[in-house]
Amino acid sequence: MTALLTLPIALPLGAAALSVVVGRWRVAQRVIGLVTLTALLGTSIALLVLVDRDGAEATQAGGWSAPFGITLVADRLAAVMLVVSMVMLLAVLVYAIGQGGEERRHVGFHPVYLALTAGVSAAFLTGDLFNLFVSFEVMLTSSYVLLTLGGRRDQVRSGMTYVVISLVASALFLTALAFVYAATGTVNLADLAVKFTDLPVGVRQALGLLLLVVFGIKAAVFPLFFWLPDSYPTAPTAITAVFAALLTKVGFYAIVRTQTVLLPPDDRPQTLLLAIAGATMLVGVLGAIAQNDIKRILSFLIVSGIGYMVMGLGLFTVAGVAGAVFFIIHHVIVMTALFLTGGLLEQRTGTGHLDRLGGLIRTAPALALAFLVAGLNLAGVPPLPGFVAKFALVDAGIDGGWWAVVAVSLLVSLLTLFSMTKIWTGAFWGDVEPAVDLHRPVPLAMLAPTTSLVALSLALTLFAGPLYGLAERAATDLLDASTYVQTVLGS
Amino acid sequence: MTIVLAAAAASLFGCGTYLLLQRQLTRILIGLALLAHGANLLIVLSAGGRGEPTFIGTGDADGFLDPLPQAFVLTAIVITFGVTGFLLALAYRSWVLTHDDEVQDDLEDRLVARRTEAEDVADARAAAAGAAEPKSDSEFEPEASR
User: Fold this and answer.
1) pLDDT digits (tens, 9 = 90+) for A470-488
2) Domain ranges for chain B
């Protein structure tokens, strides 16, 4: 069990070091990357099965007991997130290898990608606020490098915005840590959950809000999302897919963790979160409608998707949080599929600008179909899993009597469908413009992960029942922090 | 002592925020460093007041200083150092590419600016055409490169 908890962090770090050593041989680096991520996928699936069967598991690094040592915890949510991230990281790595580009030109790509993986796993598994900070930094520093690899002018410009915003968020995180430590004398999440109940209500809520701002920047919720649509699209497609689908979700995971474990039920900022959720959904989708470039449209749609997750969390009911967990699973996979499909389009035609595309359905019908399926899935057209996720959220919202946010979420679904049709009609319908389809070769290594992700996003429908059950169990664990506390502190 | 450190942290945060709002990259960088220093100082403060050094001091158990925040600060300093180094490299790259230290507007802002400019030109043209003595169009030509 201990091995399963430490492997997702130790393995990619070791592999990253090895990858630096064999930097001269790109093939060796590729083998290391693929083998490591496949092994991690297996490990995280094993962890999910075990955790789902036996309940949450914790391990103490170096045998120091809980509030003093470094704690790693895997509960159902962490395990689910881990499996989903490994699936997408593996798919994107295959895609990046197929695409070449920065992956082929730079020694640094593979080691940094593995370090990013380690950071993501550590963020999911850590049971300690300070280690959460460290894992975020590992993840973000890797992402700075991946974003600016190549050093082109627009990359440097947008990379700068991204790095500065992230650093401001990190400084705020440190400030929040200082306040939390000054108030309680501990940074262990389980220990904090116990000690927070003794704090005055005002202090408790202020700390909760400060952490919400910190992770809100990383998760790109309204009004802290402005940096995302500008910085993500300049990276190579594969990297954008990782950032878009994964990094914001890690931020959201941290929001879920801190808002549920630390704050007792009465202090949770329900109305605030639901207001943020509505605004995030709406602003994201309106931004998407105004754009004309595929990657930028998709980047705005991520912001909109984050809104749905925040809505599920903000309800603070089992049904709501379960809906949010299911939505994350669906959103990570479908968003990656969309970005990768958009990347294929760019690879083939050399542009992602809708004004310059058109009529591609005649020359690339398979691509059109893949995009259509993934797009309808994102918008939530039944019977696709996007519909299941949104239905769960809307149902939970109606149960709670939060009509306004339910209405907004339904409207946003419609607008999402509209922005998807905009891409589809812009790129695939209309007259064939002869210059558009360059018929550039698309390598199999790019096609395979894209189609597998589209297929996987469809398969989620078939397994929606068991997956929703899992999401419900994860939500039950989350809302009652006592299981988490017991697992870590052991009493 | 605590009040002095707290005041120092506050002024670091203040100066850092001010510098962060400037347009020159070097100033933003220094601002970020100051902000991080302020946060680090705050963490040191979170250990409480003065106390005996932890591992080498002697005396009563209550008199010792909590060493954990210092470990936090060490980690945070290392991370900030690394990232600041990266940002410096990025700033240098930006200078090599553009010979300019100023942070550029984002793509969207520039597009909006260009659009309103084009609209202004169109309005001015329409106004000029409607006037009794139409002016020469060349005055209202949009800038060729922006």
Assistant:
1) 998 988 888 888 888 888 8
2) 2-98, 107-140
- Tell me how far CA of residue A48 lies from CA of A99, A167, A276, A388, A453, in angstroms: 32, 33, 31, 22, 20
- Find how far residue A309's CA is from the centre of its chain: 11
The DSSP 8-state label assigned to residue A128 in this structure reads B
**B91 has a chain A CB within 8 A of its CB:** yes
Report CB contact under 8 Å: A151, B83.
no
- Shortest distance, CA A352 to any CA of chain B (angstroms): 15
CA dist., res. A306 & res. A295, Å (int): 17
Tens digits of residue pLDDT in A259-298? 888 888 887 888 888 999 999 999 999 988 888 888 888 8
Domain boundaries of chain A, sorted by first residue: 2-489
pLDDT tens series, chain B, 146 aa:
688 888 999 999 999 999 999 888 888 989 999 999 999 999 988 887 777 777 777 777 777 888 888 889 999 999 999 998 998 888 888 888 887 777 767 667 777 778 888 888 888 888 888 765 544 444 444 444 43
The SS3 assignment for A59 reads strand
Is residue A437 very low, low, confident or very high in pLDDT (cuts 50, 70, 90)?
Answer: low
- Please tell me the distance from the alpha carbon of residue B142 to that of residue B124, in angstroms, as a whole number: 11
Q: How far apart are CA B54 and CA B64, in angstroms?
A: 6
Half-sphere exposure of A284 (CA within 13 A, CB side): 30
Q: Does A293 contact chain B (CB < 8 Å)?
A: no
ipTM summary value: 0.82
Of B45, B82, B90, the CB nearest to A148: B90
Q: Angle at CA A388, nearest 5°, toward A375 and A120?
A: 75
Which are the contacts of B84, defined by CB distance < 8 A and separation ≥ 6? B29, B32, B33, B36
B1: three-class secondary structure by DSSP: coil
With CA atoms as reference, the chain B residue closest to A176 would be B39
Q: Please tell me which of the candidates B32, B43, B90 has its beta carbon nearest to residue A181.
A: B43
Distance from C-alpha of B57 to C-alpha of B59, rounded to nearest angstrom: 7
The CATH T-level fold of domain B2-98 is Helix Hairpins (1.10.287)
Q: How confident is the model at residue A434 (pLDDT cuts 50, 70, 90)?
A: low
CA distance A187 to chain B (A): 10
CB of A164 within 8 Å of any CB in chain B? yes
Residue B33, chain A, CB below 8 Å: the answer is no
Give the residue among A206, A313, A311 at the shortest CA–CA distance from A255: A313
CB contact under 8 A, B36 and A179: no
pLDDT confidence of residue A485: 86
3-state SS string for A427-490: HCCCCCCCCCCCCCCCCHHHHHHHHHHHHHHHHHHHCHHHHHHHHHHHHHHHHCHHHHHHHHHC
| B62 in reach of chain A (CB within 8 A) | no
Nearest partner of A252 among A278, A217, A291, A295, judged by Cα: A217
Listed in sequence order, the residues at least 6 apart from B133 whose beta carbon sits closer than 8 Å to its beta carbon are none
Write down the pLDDT at residue B137: 46
Is B11 at the interface with chain A, CB within 8 A?
Answer: no
Burial readout A217-236 (b: 16 or more C-beta within 10 A, e: otherwise) = bbbbbbebbbbbbbbbbbbb
Residues 103-142 of chain A whose Cβ lies under 8 A from any Cβ of chain B? 130, 133-134, 137, 141
B124 touches A at CB < 8 Å: no
